[in-house]
Amino acid sequence: MITHRSYAVDPWSVRETELSLDVLAQSESVFALSNGHVGWRGNLDEGEPHGLPGSYLNGVYELHPLPYAEAGYGYPESGQTVINVTNGKVLRLLVDDEPFDLRYGRLLSHERVLDLRRGVLERTCEWCSPAGTRVKVRSTRMISLTQRSIGAVAYEVEPVGCHVRIVVQSELVANEQLPESGGDPRAALALQSPLEPEENFASGHRLRLVHRTRRSGLRVAVAADHVVTGPQHITTASESHPDLARLTVASVLRSGQVLRVEKLVAHGWSGTRSLPAMSDQVDAALAAAALDGWEGLAQEQRACLDDFWARADVEVDGDEEIQQAVRFGLFHVLQAGARAEERAIPAKGLTGSGYDGHAFWDTEMFVLPVLTYTAPEAVAEALRWRQNTLPAARERAAQLGLRGAAFPWRTIDGREGSAYWPAGTAAFHVDADIAHALVRYVAATGDEEFARDTGLEVLVETARLWRSLGHHDHRGTFHIDGVTGPDEYSAIADDNVYTNLMARGNLLAAAEAVERYPEEAKRFGADDEESASWRDAAEAMNIPYNPELKVHEQSEGFTRYQRWDFARTRADQYPLLLHFPYFDLYRKQVVKQADLVLALYTCGHEFDEEQIARNFAYYEALTVRDSSLSACIQAVIAAQTGHLRLAYDYTAEAALMDLEDLEHNTRDGLHIASLAGTWLALVAGFGGARRSGTVLEFSPRLPERFSRLAFRLLFRGRRLAVEITQEQASYTLLSGAPMTVRHHGEEAELKPGAPVSRPVPSQPHLPPLEQPLHRRPQAGRDRKR
Ligand code: BGC
């Protein structure tokens, strides 16, 4: 994309300077707007041509039967799929008697800009119809970060050098026809016309459609209101049908005259509220938005983003592409989580239908770390969603014969949606990932109320899961057998180190929470005796280690397996899962994505520096990065172990995952975890940021390419700025009470207005590490510089 001739590098925007239909679907993902509740893909205003039309409401899905050739006990019976809801962003245009369709006539110019400070997508183009009529079209689109249900479009048409008869049709469209997906036909069926009409309304400039999903029974209401300005003679008419509501605006414009249509769109959905209640809800949201009008919304959006960047911006000097990419990533991470409010943050956010719109552990381990230090209120909301889904997780645990709660591997509504149990049901680490995120959030914010009201219950139920899933052997050692860790090229393994260390953290955090809130814990039937059993399990946890190789085993016996034959694996055979049977991947040493290496980061205190370096080198030679969740973590540990050039290359890969479409699937939606991972690579990698209890530690070191890296963080009511050059790091407390940070192990006291600087120790040159053949970092390999 960015390497595509039509993309320009700019620090505060993503600019497409000409329309390239060959990357249309990718650009729709890159230009998607969302606030975590409503998401609009960057489809062209007129609806066509499109790659994949997409308007999403977080939590709205349809059910479909899950296919099994050989069914088994406990297999989920139905799957959930995000659906394309009523599209409120369509504005069709007729120029004299020809439809404005960029596949016809001549496109004289076309530019789209995603403005990361204003939070809008702007489009300007000039088109000459097949009959020779010229018009300029400008549109600005936003999904409000301040008014949760609102999307808005300001659309302008201006003839060039002639009189033109113009008709603008502003529409709400339900059950849009979607391109063939090529995926599971049963899921595809659920996606064709998923909405049953319930109400349609049009009067004056107002439109409304209410529908209901057929199987999941969710009611979706979308309404629009308009302000039309232009030359004196304008006619308007509105009409509605079951799947279409339309305002038609017609006028004759002279050259230079402008017809402007401002469209406000309100969205709502519910599984319980009645039809009249939903109609009222979206009408009320429109009335609230109309108070401010388009300009007011635009100002609020800017103010909201100014505030975000003031606490979250990352500056990279010396690398324009990474600078652009990290802001692009932060913007999309904010969009994914800002207003999700007790709903999941899906792997693709609300930018596409990839992964059926499901949320995974990506949220807790990749997205929430970023939001914890930049927009913590969104983290509390995301974790409250997990708490709200505890009933389903308890039911699932009981079904599996376990205690506590088994959170789903992939889901929209909290119920397990994975039809492949070796990498679904068995991936129990998701429980510990959620617990980890809770602990991180509470430590970074000091939010005691949350710790008591949400944290405690989730920690207790996840600790119970571990205690019942694992067992003490005859020597008393605690094992968790038959689970799948993050590396999906190993499954049903015993004592996966990542899982065991994360479970240990989970058990200890739960024990502490019960001891801290004994009264509240009683409500969940937890007491000192139970918490003592969690501590025993945590302390006796088996952490497999190979003393001959002096490395940890990803899971028991892993280093004994045959190594994958990388020399005979061709470059075009990656990702391996599409070219080799799982049975063979599972019994060989080959790693899909950071697993033990992720433990080196998330449970770093469990390893000494030498172990970290040896483990990293060992697993580096086996890791093929067939998941976009890997590069950023490899960047973090490469930086920690002094492999700064390698860390840089992995950072670039994580950062450019979508802007360069490195995995060739950006069309289905953005890789939100990888975008978040760019921040992790920079802040935890080159900044060396770690949290030890309630103290922040930094061990900064920059790669050669960067002359400066600066970032901001929120921590326990303070705003902190860190600025790193090749020679020194300085720490400034921008607001809040004095605090202590550590710089390369040494304490530094920070007081407001008194920056503290410390030298950055130099990094001795290390011999390069080996990667599997053909699997060197992509961006590093491909980039020309
Ligand atoms: C990865 C998982 C991840 C999922 C969604 C898979 O390819 O292996 O770890 O959760 O994608 O991003």
Structural key phrases:
785 residues, alpha+beta, Beta-galactosidase, Chain A, domain 5, Maltose phosphorylase, domain 3, 10-stranded antiparallel sheet, 5-stranded antiparallel sheet, 35 strands, globular, binds beta-D-glucopyranose, Gal_mutarotase_sf_dom, 6hp_glycosidase-like_sf, Glyco_hydro_65_M, hydrolase activity
Can you describe this structure?
The protein has 785 residues and is of the alpha+beta class. Among the domains are: 7-285, Glycoside hydrolase, family 65, N-terminal domain (Beta-galactosidase, Chain A, domain 5, Distorted Sandwich), CATH 2.70.98; 314-374 and 625-785, Maltose phosphorylase, domain 3 (Sandwich), CATH 2.60.420.10. It is 32% helix and 26% strand. It is built from 19 helices and 35 strands. The strands form nine sheets. A ten-stranded antiparallel sheet has the order 1-2-10-11-12-13-20-17-16-15. A five-stranded antiparallel sheet has the order 9-8-14-19-18, with no helix packed on it. Beta-D-glucopyranose is lined by residues 347, 355, 360-362, 486, 488, 592-593, 627, 629, 673. Pfam families: Glyco_hydro_65C, Glyco_hydro_65m, Glyco_hydro_65N. Keywords: Glycosidase, Hydrolase. This is Glycoside hydrolase family 65 protein. Residues 690-750 form the Glycoside hydrolase family 65 C-terminal domain.
